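User: quick one, fold this
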Amino acid sequence: MNVLWINEFIYNDHAMKKLSRSKLKSIKGAVNCAGCPVNNNYGTGPEYSNTCAQYLTLSENCQRCVDVSTDCYE
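Assistant:
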């Protein structure tokens, strides 16, 4: 199988173009991280900038936008 990654994915003589960022944003259910603390990470221990308790106070939308340890799901 020959696969070519430039601006499109070629497979069995069919081309599927990558979606632009603007089109990705318009997909129903797409996450919008505007206003979310995307530079923070959450977990237990000194390597995390915030705690799991702080993660749980974020909105459901923002929870999908940040890095979080599996410790916060226990």
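User: anything notable?
Assistant: Residues 21-25 form the longest helix (5 residues).
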